[in-house]
Amino acid sequence: CYPKSKVVLVERDIERWYKSFNEGIISSIWHPAIRIIARLDSRFVGKLASTSERWTTGWMEARSRSEMQVNARPKYKEHYEMVRRVTPPSRLLEFRLEDGWEPLCTFLGRPIPDIDFPRVNEAAVLSEKIRLIAWKGIKNGLRTSLKVSSAILVLVIAWWAVVGSVPRREH
After folding, report:
1. DSSP annotation string for 140-154
2. Of 97, 56, 94, 95, nearest to 75 (Cα)?
């Protein structure tokens, strides 16, 4: 698509990555509450869950939490090997976050900013995003449930009004 694009491959310690991936991604994908919320909110969380499921069964080749945990490290390595294989070395930066701005800006041909390189608690950020998605799903699910319940209540009241007012025949 973009033959002149540059690729920044952020290299992480695999065990630190796995801990974060297991606690943030795997635990969320297989969490029973998230699965229930996905069913209640098919328009938002349900679509995210569907995408996650296709990725989990496809790329991760996992049909359970334990399979995903077993496959995570080999898939991490496979991904990095694939990126290195398909990207010309002149367009690939293997970047470590602890190296800061200098190698990144040099590779991209940009000046080095006069601010510190950003450091974030990735686990905390991911946890907050998942929490926000779950709350949105709960609100959407409750809204949908309220609409369905209201429609059923209207139908029951209408049925009762019609059936309740019709004279009954006695045998």
Report:
1. HHHHHHHHHHHHHHH
2. 56
What are the beta bridge partners of residue 93?
A: 8
Hey, what are 20's tokens?
């974060």
Q: Does an H or E element contain 129, and which?
A: helix 122-165
CB-CB contact of 16 with 99 (8 Å): no
User: Six-digit token pair at 32?
Assistant: 């029973």
**Rounded Cα distance, 72 and 74, in Å:** 6
Q: Which two tokens stand for residue 63?
A: 């049909």
- Other Cβ atoms less than 10 A from the Cβ of 133: the count is 19
- The tokens describing 163, both together, are 């059936």
**Whose structure tokens read 């606690």?**
23
- Tokens 């398909």 locate to 86
Token duo for residue 88? 């010309």
The torsion angles phi and psi of 31, rounded to 5 degrees, stand at: -75, 130
pLDDT in tens, the chain (171 residues): 688 899 999 988 999 889 988 988 888 888 888 888 888 888 888 788 888 888 888 989 999 999 999 999 999 999 999 999 999 999 999 999 899 999 999 999 999 999 999 877 677 777 777 778 777 877 877 787 778 788 788 887 877 777 776 566 676
The encoded tokens of residue 103 equal 């190698």
